Amino acid sequence: MTYEQKLSEALDAVKREGRYRIFADVKRRRGAFPKADVHLGSKPAPITVWCSNDYLGMGQHPDVVAAMHQAIDRVGAGSGGTRNISGTTHYHVELEAEIADLHGKESALLFTSAYVANEAALSTLVQLLPGCVVFSDEKNHASMIAGIRNGRGPKQIFLHNDLADLEAKLQSVPFGTPKIIAFESVYSMDGHVAPIAAICDLAAKYNALTYLDEVHAVGLYGPRGGGIAERDGVMHRIDVINGTLAKGYGVMGGYIAASRTLCDAVRSYAPGFIFTTSLAPVIAAGALASIRHLKTSTIERERHQERARTLKRRLNAADLPVISGPSHIVPVLVADPVRCKALSDVLLNLHGIYVQPINYPTVPRGAERLRLTPSPQHTDADMDHLVGALTALWAQCPLTLMQSLAEAAE
Predict the structure, then answer these.
(1) DSSP conformation letters of 77-138
(2) CB-based contact 209:136 (threshold 8 Å)
(3) Contact 285, 67 (CB under 8 A)
(4) Cβ(102)–Cβ(225) under 8 Å?
(5) Is 183 in a helix, a strand, or coil?
(6) Which helix (H) or strand (E) holds 26?
């Protein structure tokens, strides 16, 4: 048995399950989002992107692009080091202050991604609080799971958004034992929203810290884009907020916002912060411009919510299997990995519609789906084209037909 053979066998297993991932080679058109070009063969083909996490199209916003041009002209490309060693530029300092203000916290700490922020912050907090027990929602993101696991402390998994189950588990641990309740505001694959206020009530009752991942909500909800916690008026009750600069804000990077002491402790102990090069100043500048714009502009959020409501209504009217939920996420259930990939291929190759199939391990086996993310820039004509294509494909539902269509489109 060679190493290459063993790795090939592992890949073959993924392919047999129908969940082998193929990346779409996409080039977005500046100023024309959600229009883009995909490289399928000898020349690019025009497409409409329906699965981007650039939820508001801020990656194309003139203020963001201008700020990034200005930063690269002033200071160049990279940061030049870790945050400890020459990699803390004034852009980083300004951005952390802006994030802390956004969430009403004393401090904030930047990371290269929200995944790294979750892993570093959760693992460090568990290690710094001896005996700490983490109570984790069963649908938490892989980055939170990694952080909890790497903290090497005890954990209890509670049923998704189930307050009774969470309370029963909290009751099983002595009041004086350190505790963290880790959960998300918007769960990105189903579109569920957490009962944040009620979870905060339980945290206060049982002496627990609250750790809230707002990755799929920052920029999108609340009067200034502070997330679901801001929208619900409970932001001050959350001890640690995790967010991203790569989705609602359209750039990249992640952060935590919390008390000055907590952020300083993570800054001083977390390997994921200490031993990595800081975000490029050009990225920090773009994120700074995006946050500042969305703190005062509500046009993007209002249009985004209207587009999400309209798409759900249109898909439901066409009797397509939309998973209902209160957020901007619009999942269409397929429940088969091979068929999900075939549908995605046909949409891309024959209809110029790009929506990535979502398979295990992102969602459980049997819950495969097409995850649609309407943006303020998607037009009624875009929706007509999407709903028409999906309706026609669902009418040709048998899996063998899906496969033959996909093969013909290649």
Answers:
(1) S---SBTTTT---HHHHHHHHHHHHHHT-SEEEEES-HHHHHHHHHHHHHHHSTT-EEEEET
(2) no
(3) yes
(4) yes
(5) strand
(6) strand 26-28
- H and E: helices and strands count for the chain: 15, 14
Q: pLDDT by residue (tens digit) across 307-365? A: 999 999 999 999 999 998 999 999 999 988 888 998 999 999 999 999 999 998 889 98
Choose among 97, 351, 114: nearest CA to 242. Answer: 114
Q: Which three-class secondary structure state does DSSP give residue 378?
A: coil
Task: Respond yes or no: is residue 295 known to be catalytic.
Answer: no
Q: What is the DSSP annotation of 268-337?
A: HH-HHHHTSBPPPHHHHHHHHHHHHHHHH--HHHHHHHHHHHHHHHHHHHTT--B---SSS-EEEE---H
Evaluate whether 180 touches 125 at the Cβ level (below 8 Å).
yes
Q: Which residue is catalytic, options 105, 169, 247, 312?
A: 247
pLDDT digits (tens, 9 = 90+) for 156-214: 999 999 999 999 999 999 999 999 999 999 999 999 999 999 999 999 999 999 999 99
Q: For residues 31-45, give the mean pLDDT.
A: 90
Q: With a threshold of 0.70, does the pTM exceed it?
A: yes
What average pLDDT score do residues 46-62 get? 97
User: Is residue 297 predicted with pLDDT exceeding 80?
Assistant: yes
Q: Comparing C-alpha atoms, which of 151, 246, 247, 262 is closest to residue 210?
A: 262
Nearest 5°: phi and psi at 372? -95, 140
